[in-house]
Amino acid sequence: MSEKKLTVAVLGATGAVGRRILDQLQQSTIPYGTVRALASAKSAGEKVPFGHEVLTVEEATASSFEGVDLVLASAGGSVSKNLAPAAVKAGAVVIDNSSYWRMDNNVPLVVPEVNPEALLHHKGIIANPNCSTTQLVMALKPIHDRFGLDQVIISTYQAASGAGQAAIDEVKAEAQARLNGQSMAEHAKILPVKSDKKHYPLAFNLLPQIDVFEDGDYTHEEYKMIHETKKILLDDKDSREMKVTGTAVRVPVIIGHGESVYVQTGDEQATVADIRQLMVDFPGVVLEDDVAHQVYPQPVEAEGKRETFVGRIRADLENPGAFHLWIVSDNLLKGAAWNTVEIAEKMVEMNLL
Amino acid sequence: MSEKKLTVAVLGATGAVGRRILDQLQQSTIPYGTVRALASAKSAGEKVPFGHEVLTVEEATASSFEGVDLVLASAGGSVSKNLAPAAVKAGAVVIDNSSYWRMDNNVPLVVPEVNPEALLHHKGIIANPNCSTTQLVMALKPIHDRFGLDQVIISTYQAASGAGQAAIDEVKAEAQARLNGQSMAEHAKILPVKSDKKHYPLAFNLLPQIDVFEDGDYTHEEYKMIHETKKILLDDKDSREMKVTGTAVRVPVIIGHGESVYVQTGDEQATVADIRQLMVDFPGVVLEDDVAHQVYPQPVEAEGKRETFVGRIRADLENPGAFHLWIVSDNLLKGAAWNTVEIAEKMVEMNLL
């Protein structure tokens, strides 16, 4: 373990994830000394809580990182693109929540329980996976290692908070409008995608679009889930050894993503009991699968928790070795802030910080 | 076409589906004469609208069906079990929304666009499929006929109204409580399953339980979807020719079920363009699949419409001949009331009424 106190900068400290990074950092085993809150010029001067202290937000610029050992970043792709190299040049390690660096061959994409060894080869920037990927690979990893995975098919049920605080406010305003018998349409300004042309209400609705559309009519979110899952689980980068596909849907939940996942393992002898035991044994995963007592993962129960919850495990009755899983986790914690801080904890433990 | 005026009884006329059956009947091409509203003793004397008229609800008993030609029933399994045979004995044809008769070998299970020929062999009772099945087979039928279907994997996103008006009221009360910063728990009395032991809030949540749990930890809803889909699509009842499996999830939507469906066709040469054309050509299906203009099916847009909407059609990039579909329909109309009335329209057209 490193003995020095680390100077930590939280970049994007005023956002829904940034505030939670400060919370998680404060509760972590990381030996932090000075903690600085950085954000855009617009937010400079704002106050953000850090345990019982209050930090004053400073504007983030390329010269903000002098003397900083660790940057925990959640400020969007373009900010990370510009500032992460400056922070690395100043001697810091950057753990980044944006999608910008994730598929870069020189950047490890890490879930600490799943592929900590990837941290050994870092070159200053470590990427935190997309929220829908993180909880998915937590459940897939032990199955992949024990039985192999031939195919994974995912349908997501993703919460509004994945699009930030403004999306949370929007879905609440829409819900109140409909409960009052008023139109929801005027409140729809952010979802499904702020930068896209049309906006639709999410309250009491389902939006099968998360992020922009790309080749083959898949969304960027769907591609992130596919490519990041392969990068994390496949050592040799041979994507052909495990097929991954899926559909990403935004649902009117505030916090907590659900995923209905179908896995075809490589072993026709694998049983539901085997899969359940793998979940029990895997750190960070909690098995919630006792249907006789109506126990199964639910977003409102996962809110505020660090773990990934797995239940509704069933064998496909016609396809040996294939199973259904229902995976739920707090998308702002394991899907973002906690995984980021947990990477730093792991790097301290591995003497990489 | 039959020329006589049909005496029609709507059984369960006070429920969310029953009221919509009256609406759909009033707007239909069925040559109805007298229309009677039947329900439990508790509701006798209540008034229900029928177009510009008002009907007075009568108590439904075994002797209610004298002179009735057609019974449109949506009153639950135990009522249908008891009263449908009495109605048939009195000379009526019964089109039933409950699950009780659906898998009976002597009862056709019918979606008029999909398998009208099954009506030819009816023995008085015709079953209307479960809501999640109906919209599914609307999209699957043309694919099955053209390319064959080796496997179908479904994840549902089902609206509260599938559990009746009380469930709609419950999810609205929960949503208002959470928006007010109050606990949702006290409002949870019906969902996920009224007769089961525990009840959980659905507002801003996801409940991976619809109906009770059965063998292999599948829910009754999941089995209904699997078995009914096979009964409707497979002429020879050989279930091995098409594997069907899935997960049913209740979502905080009022009206309109979503389904994320993965199909492995029997033809590796099938293309997205082929699947889209099949949807355009199939009666009752509307293709909503123009992602460049953010056009895709949404429950709030499907509400009040009779059609089944299909979009987000994509090829699995690693598995030739496999596709994703996103299917949305009003679960109270095509999933229930409209399909029931449409069966009767089709029977009139086929001179079976």
Report on this model:
The structure is a homodimer of 353-residue chains. Chain A has 353 residues and is an alpha/beta fold. Chain A is built from eight helices and 14 strands. In chain A, helix 2 (77-89) links the parallel strand 6 (70-73) and strand 7. In chain A, helix 1 (16-26) packs parallel to helix 8, helix 3 (131-147) runs parallel beside helix 5 and helix 3 crosses helix 8. The interface between A and B is large, with 65 and 65 residues. Chains A, B: Catalyzes the NADPH-dependent formation of L-aspartate-semialdehyde (L-ASA) by the reductive dephosphorylation of L-aspartyl-4-phosphate. Chains A, B: Residues 7-122 form the Semialdehyde dehydrogenase NAD-binding domain.
